[in-house]
Design brief:
binds adenosine-5'-diphosphate, EC 5.1.99.6, 2 domains, alpha/beta, elongated, Rossmann fold, binds ligand NPW, binds potassium ion, EC 4.2.1.136
């Protein structure tokens, strides 16, 4: 069993892939062995979380997720704990593994109750796992809301019940409204057999909490991955015999009147991200040609940039004015990061879309937030958020570019490659300008010579990790994030 952290590199398997792995593993093992391993893993983690627990409420559902809970109940009872099991479902329809575990729990003397105990020191959510087919309702919904509103830690078995393993969409939102979050009890999830993408994106991170993994000693074999966790980037090795030209030139094009700050943030981030030289080409011609707090930045007119030598970060604070420059930028830039207003302009113009797709082969990274992604796909934000992996992959395929779909569990996708899901970052990043900082950081990584997917995930990982390291009592600003 291992704790999953930001530094964990691991394959992720969606529902179908996880089921294939489970079937292959079960075929080589004695009957019920996998569920016994699952129950033991759950019991071990439960004992570590609440070693002095007097009452452990285990809420079991009608399928094999419930079976894992029953197996854990038997294990805990045998170790001197006092689990109380409440169950939903019809005994005659229990799958064989779960039925065997029900018998073991009964044989061990586990207490079964019709209603949850009035007080529990730990709760195990074994209601639904991979088989969640619709939103929990009735008694199941009541129990889920009750366990997540209470003071006891909640350990979800395999998945928080109702969380879609593929998308991270939560069919019953049992999370307290954001303003009440300081009162949340500890939340944990022990993912079994495989790690699932939905745990890392959408509502998955909030629903799961602290994440643990046990592979039940089963190998994924040759089942294709659905996505990956990247692990921590290895810092770039700067050789002594290098110079500023070795780390590439970034030019930021953006900053229409009233929005100069966005371009300045991106340029600052590119500089602090290690670019050899950074140019700032504001769209507001009235701007002074110097940023006094950032004298390293060199100001140029957009038309004077030698695009074919540059990594261009385009769009930050670009407003409407960016549209007229896009044909040149798309056609000429050696490497390109398209953000914000540049993405909106592309979304509104089919000629620009064709030009963007025509860059295939030249490094290109698009950094939409969900609304920008929705505009590019011609759909709505809710549809994008309902399946972030699919939205990012579809955009990457459509435009032949690397796509960074921002938000909790940022997705990095590229044509015909397994997507990455970024595990770092938090809601302190929900402040104006942090996206501009990310675009600048990706620009610096591209300019240093990383291929686009690597440049993107490394910058996204680092950007999120900076927010996690930021002291809890100090608000994070985009300017500070750019200078970390
Ligand atoms: N076999 C093994 O050895 C191992 C199995 N493992 C474990 O098995 C889990 C997968 O088990 P599973 O396939 O039985 O699915 P599960 O999540 O229990 O749910 C299916 C049941 O729920 C029902 N149902 C669905 N939605 C509902 C709703 N909203 N409200 C009410 N009911 C609802 C659905 O009914 P139906 O849709 O048919 O009406 C069906 O009865 C996996 O996540 C892992 O924990 C692993 O530990 C490895 C070892
Ligand atoms: N709740 C959150 N959890 C993790 N990352 C977040 C969260 N909110 C925002 N971010 C990150 O902050 C950045 C915001 O970018 P964006 O929406 O473009 O903002 P802006 O346009 O103000 O710069 C993205 O990298 C996004 O992934
Ligand atoms: K569960």
């Amino acid at each position: 069993m291992q704790r999953i952290t930001a530094a964990t590199a691991a394959p992720l398997f969606g529902t179908d892939a996880s089921r294939r792995i489970e079937q292959a593993a079960a075929a080589t093992l004695p009957p019920h062995a996998l569920m016994q391993r699952a129950g033991l893993a759950v019991a071990r983690l439960a004992m570590a979380v609440a070693p002095n627990a007097r009452t452990i409420w285990i809420a079991c559902g009608p399928g094999n997720n419930g079976g894992d809970g029953l197996e854990a109940a038997a294990q805990l009872q045998g170790r001197g704990f006092a689990p109380v099991v409440t169950r939903i479902g019809d005994d005659t329809r229990l799958p064989p593994d779960a039925r065997a575990s029900l018998q073991r729990a009964r044989d061990a003397g586990v207490r079964f109750a019709d209603a949850p105990p009035a007080h529990a020191d730990l709760v195990l959510d074994a209601l639904l796992g991979l088989g969640a087919a619709r939103a929990p309702g009735g008694l199941m919904a009541d129990w889920l809301r009750r366990m997540h509103a209470g003071p006891a830690p909640v350990l979800s078995i395999d998945l928080p019940s109702g969380l879609n393993a593929d998308t991270g969409a939560l069919s019953l939102n049992f999370l307290a409204p954001a303003a009440h979050r300081t009162q949340d009890a500890r939340r944990l999830c022990l993912s079994l057999l495989t790690l699932k993408p939905g745990l890392f994106t959408g509502q998955g991170r909030d629903a799961a909490g602290e994440l643990w993994f046990d592979d039940l000693a089963a190998s994924p074999g040759d089942v294709p991955l659905t996505a990956r966790l990247p692990g921590a980037p290895v810092p770039m090795n700067r050789r002594h015999a290098t110079h500023k030209g070795s780390y590439g030139d970034v030019a930021v094009v953006g900053g229409a009147p009233g929005m100069a700050g966005a371009a300045l943030l991106a340029a600052t981030a590119a500089l602090h991200g290690g670019a050899g030289r950074v140019y700032l080409a504001p769209l507001d011609a009235a701007l002074p040609a110097l940023a006094p707090t950032q004298p390293e930045l060199m100001f140029r007119r957009p038309a004077a940039l030698p695009l074919e030598d540059l990594t261009v970060v385009c769009g930050c604070g670009g407003g409407e004015a960016i549209r007229d420059l896009l044909p040149q930028v798309l056609g000429g830039s050696r490497a390109l990061v398209l953000d914000a207003d540049a993405l909106n302009a592309v979304a509104a113009d089919e000629a620009l879309q064709r030009q963007l797709a025509g860059r295939a082969g030249r490094p290109t990274v698009l950094t939409p937030h969900p609304l920008e992604a929705a505009r590019l796909l011609g759909t709505g934000t809710a549809e994008v958020q309902a399946d972030r992996l699919r939205a990012a992959t579809e955009l990457a395929q459509r435009f032949g570019a690397t796509v960074v779909l921002k938000g909790s569990g940022t997705i990095v996708a590229a044509p015909n490659q397994t997507p990455w899901i970024n595990p770092t970052g938090n809601a302190r990043l929900a402040t104006a300008g942090t996206g501009d900082v990310l675009a600048g950081m990706i620009g610096a990584a591209l300019a240093a010579g990383h291929e686009p997917m690597t440049a993107a995930w490394q910058a996204v990982w680092t950007h999120g990790e900076r927010a996690e390291r930021w002291p809890a009592h100090r608000p994070l600003t985009a300017g500070a994030l750019a200078r970390c």
